[in-house]
Automatic annotation (TrEMBL):
The keyword Hydrolase applies. Keywords: ATP-binding, Hydrolase, Membrane, Nucleotide-binding, Transmembrane, Transmembrane helix, Transport. Pfam families: ABC_tran (PF00005), Peptidase_S15 (PF02129), PepX_C (PF08530). This is ABC-2 type transport system ATP-binding protein. Belongs to the ABC transporter superfamily. It comes from the Bacteria. Residues 608-836 form the ABC transporter domain. It comes from Catenuloplanes atrovinosus. GO terms for molecular function: ATP binding; ATP hydrolysis activity; dipeptidyl-peptidase activity.
Length: 911
């Protein structure tokens, strides 16, 4: 009968109208264009620059004005500079955020890039820095920009990498800059591209050819009609310096002088603008040492300039870093600019902050970091330091001719990612490296700063270029080179023998890393690396590492990240909702079902008795109609049925994962209820194995058992491992397990404590034939000493060979149960194993009614007896001189199963 609509009362009409109004408002809010909070316009402007200050250059600019800014309501301004190879579009999103925060933001494409004119001079004082000064002049002339004095805008400078160096150089040259935030930038450009971890002069540094080549290629073209195709848009002196160093792999005083012009290190004594230095941990181009040198130089210049340092888990190799770190860096920047440029808020603390990777986000699998703070900036050689011993004899290593083949520790822009993928596959080539390893650590170490090692070297040429690396080696032998960072060293004046060599201190790139207990440290000294230029002449060096590695320890105070308050509020709301739901469930359960704690004496020694089980869902779907069966000690019982027959639902009810509509389950006489103590006598694998990938199999099992709250001595750990047959694989991390090993580990977990009843859902799922055969033996071994096994499987042949009993379910109802051989039953078809199939067929042809069907795979015969007794068939064969090895029924469990459920049978959609 059709449903009659309820009468529309005034109260319902008002409620419906209000609901529609709210819905319309929400819809409009969702689709209405959001006011960006600013406007911007693009303009190509010409500024006077160059050494004389009169040379014109066209700059492509973009200017953002926040809403409400005017001559009567002026706002502070920012210069936002892009990185090398980028343009003003590269920083558009950051400019939008700053404009929304109330700043007038000027972005532009630096000379030599994009649509701007001029040549690339690498932030020289006479060119790129003077260009920025002219932009300051334009900001000072804008009516909506706040001014400290005529011609002096209230302005800060922000930039990353190339733009970060510009911010430092501009602040040193122009006192109108009120605050700067340089990010992932350099201190000494010569030292950055020609490093020497032993402290040698820049002119003798080891050329960082991979990064230099990347820089040069990103600025080399397209050349104009009047430019040198070898140099593209680089200025002639910059191009010549690069070509000279790239050709020989060595610098000269002249080439170093070109790089000095672009180095903030030479002008730090002039910087008075409060400076926030943000540097990335994942940076093989400009590592933490560059920010450290900038911080120390500004702090020592005598002006009392506020300086703050922050490290984050990004950089030229790590990109913007994890979202948690991006939020922290943005908050630090906003706080710094708001106080020192906008004049709002209290003075930011000068504490040092840093982050350490803590794991992966459960939603997007991205990295998550924890942030820490320390009152005073500790630098790169923080105290206290811990010495860790490494051992190994002096070793001979070869420098390859022409530097090829060379080890691969990092690639520009992919240092940390590459090192995590390659491990030591390509980073340490045979014959080209020496290795020195520590004992396992007895306690975890929070390393923060530059580790130091001392080494000795001997060379037949008196000189050697070496690359020193520090690996974190886990108990499985997996080695991690933090962020792909290595320390290049050029040693000169070396003796020919190691006995005469004097020790040299090597300062490795700074890292922030927790080295866990049980891990080892490995110091590697190599002769080649594709990221650097080494000597082409083949030679054999001898190296020795002194037995102590010094590790700076960084212990900060944990910080609440941006948005932490909202996360706590959200957590509180979720907790309140969860408590409310729990209360509702508890009340409903108390009202509808009384817990039965009685013990049925007749079943006290029976592992499992299922009686009248029914499971019906709220929508009327019946997953299990009527199920009754028993599992006794010593039995391996197979639960069979087509897809949707109700097998999984039965097991879920059995394990307390869902409640039955009717019926009961008793385990050793106890009525099964959620949380019932009798469940401690049951081990189960129902929903599939789930393990923590960073733990070994043994660690996963131990963690599982600890969660049960039961004494460790009750786990019977070794017995469970022996039955499951895991062997030494239990000591490997589970992320390296095959599917079959994970299944066996899951079986071992279910077997912990050797429960008297083992319940398994598809234990052979995904296993190959040898693994299935082994699982068959495992289950048979387990069902001894009075234990029992209930296994659900769709592999009928496996059930036939493994199980003593079977329960066949179809459409939620049991259609057969009992010993497997009874369900299979007798068969008119037999399999004959004979020694002479041809003679056997001739003899059988003489027997009336016996019909040959086919040859078996092993050469035997399959025949239909058609009522003829088996003994008569065997006697006839023997009289004919045919040897009979075996007579077996041909009928299989599969035949019986299909006869019971039908070949086209489908279940009701088991849930």
């Amino acid at each position: 009968m059709p449903r009659v609509l309820s009468r529309m009362t005034p109260r319902r009409w008002i409620a419906g109208t209000a609901a529609l109004a709210v819905l319309a408002g929400l819809t409009g809010w969702a689709v209405w264009p959001e006011d960006p909070g600013f406007t911007f316009h693009d303009e190509v402007i010409t500024v006077a620059s160059g050494p004389s200050g009169t040379e014109p250059v066209a700059l492509d600019t973009r200017y953002f004005v926040p809403d409400g800014a005017s001559e009567s309501a002026p706002v502070p301004a920012l210069l936002l500079a892009h990185g090398f190879g980028g343009d003003m579009h590269s920083v558009h999103a950051q400019a939008e955020d700053l404009a929304r925060a109330g700043y007038a933001v000027m972005t532009w494409t630096a000379r030599g890039f994009g649509k701007s004119g001029g040549q690339i001079h690498l932030n020289s004082q006479d060119h790129e820095v003077r260009d920025a000064q002219r932009l300051l002049d334009r900001l000072a002339a804008r009516p909506e920009v706040r001014r400290d004095a005529p011609g002096d805008p209230r302005v800060g400078a922000v930039g990353g990498s190339y733009g970060g160096a510009l911010a430092l150089l501009l602040a040193a040259r122009d006192s109108r800059v009120d605050a700067i935030v340089p990010m992932i930038t350099w201190n000494d450009l010569g030292r950055a591209f020609l490093p020497d971890a032993a402290g040698g002069p820049v002119v003798d540094g080891v050329f960082k050819k991979a990064w230099a080549g990347t820089f040069f290629s990103s600025g080399a073209g397209p050349p104009g009609p009047d430019t040198d195709p070898a140099c593209g848009r680089f200025a002639a002196d910059v191009c010549a310096a690069f070509l000279a160093i790239a050709t020989t792999g060595r610098a000269t005083p002249e080439t170093v002088a070109v790089l000095d012009r672009s180095s903030p290190a030479r002008v730090l004594d002039r910087i008075k603008a409060p400076t926030l230095l943000i540097q990335g941990l994942a940076d093989t181009l400009f590592p933490l040492s560059e920010a450290d040198a900038n911080a120390r130089g500004i702090a020592a210049n005598g002006h009392g300039t506020p300086v703050r340092v922050a490290w984050y888990a990004g950089g030229h190799d790590g990109g913007p870093g994890p979202r948690t770190d991006q939020d922290r860096v943005e908050e630090l920047t906003d706080e710094w600019l708001d106080h020192y440029v906008a004049g709002e808020g209290g003075a930011p603390p000068d504490s040092f902050t840093y982050s350490r990777v803590a794991g992966f986000d459960a939603l997007d699998r991205g990295l998550v970091t924890n942030a820490y703070s320390i009152a005073d900036y500790p630098g790169l050689t923080a105290e206290p330091a811990v010495s860790v011993g490494v051992t190994g004899p002096p070793q001979r290593i070869a420098n390859p001719p022409g530097g090829n083949p060379a080890a691969l520790s990092s690639l520009p822009g992919a240092g940390s990612a590459l090192s995590s993928v390659l491990g030591t596959a390509l980073s340490d080539l045979p014959g080209q490296h020496a290795s020195y390893v520590s004992d396992p650590l007895t306690a975890a170490l929070d390393v923060g700063g530059s580790p130091r090692v001392r080494l000795r070297a001997a060379s037949p040429t008196g000189e050697a270029v070496l690359f020193v690396k520090l690996y974190d080696v886990d108990p499985d032998g997996g080695a991690t080179l933090s962020e792909g960072l290595i320390a290049p060293v050029r040693l000169t004046g070396l003796p020919a023998t190691i006995d005469a060599a004097r020790p040299v201190t090597v300062t490795l790139p700074a890292v922030v890393r927790r080295v866990d207990e049980g891990h080892r440290l490995r110091v590697v000294v190599a002769t080649s690396d594709q990221a650097f230029a080494g000597p082409d002449t083949p030679a054999v060096y001898t190296v020795a590492v002194e037995p102590q590695v010094s590790l700076p320890i960084l212990t900060g105070t944990p910080m609440a990240g941006p948005g932490a308050i909202w996360r706590w509020v959200l957590a509180g709301l979720l907790a309140a909702i969860a408590l409310g739901l729990a209360a509702v469930l508890l009340v409903a359960r108390a009202r509808h079902r009384r817990i039965d704690r009685s013990v049925a004496a007749e079943h006290a020694d029976t592992p499992l008795v299922v009686s009248g089980l029914r499971k019906e869902y709220a929508d009327g779907f019946v997953a299990v109609s009527t199920v009754d069966f028993t599992v006794r000690r010593g039995q391996v019982v197979g639960l069979l049925g087509p897809n949707g027959a109700g097998k999984t639902t039965t097991l879920r009810v059995l394990m307390g994962l869902t409640q039955p509509t009717r019926g009961e389950i008793r385990i050793f006489g106890h009525r099964l209820t959620p949380g019932s103590p009798v469940l401690s006598r049951v081990g189960a694998l129902v929903e599939g194995p789930g393990f923590l990938p960073h733990l070994t199999g043994e660690e996963n099992l131990r963690a599982y058992w600890r969660a049960t709250g039961r004494p460790w001595e009750d786990a019977r750990f070794e017995e469970a491992l022996e039955i499951a047959g895991l062997g030494d694989s239990v000591h490997r991390r589970t992320r390296k397990y095959s599917h079959g090993m994970r299944q066996r580990l899951a079986i071992a977990q279910a077997m912990l404590g050797l429960p008297e009843l083992l319940v398994l859902d598809e234990p052979t799922d995904g296993l190959d034939p040898p693994q299935i055969a082994e699982m068959r033996r495992v289950l048979r071994r387990y069902a001894t000493d009075g234990r029992a096994v209930l296994v659900s499987s769709h592999l009928l042949a496996e059930v036939e060979q493994t199980c003593t009993h079977a329960v066949v379910v179809n459409k939620g109802t049991i259609v057969a149960s009992g010993p497997v051989e009874e369900i299979v039953g007798d068969s008119p078809t037999v399999h004959l194993d004979v020694d002479d199939p041809v003679a056997a067929r001739a003899a059988l042809d003489g027997l009336g009614g016996v019909r040959f069907l086919q040859e078996a795979e092993n050469g035997g015969l399959i025949v239909d007896l058609n009522g003829t007794p088996r003994r008569e068939v065997v006697a006839s064969l023997v009289r004919a001189g045919v040897g009979v090895d075996r007579v077996a029924p041909r009928r299989r469990l599969e035949d019986a199963f299909l006869a019971l459920v039908g070949e086209n049978s489908r279940g009701s959609g088991d849930r």
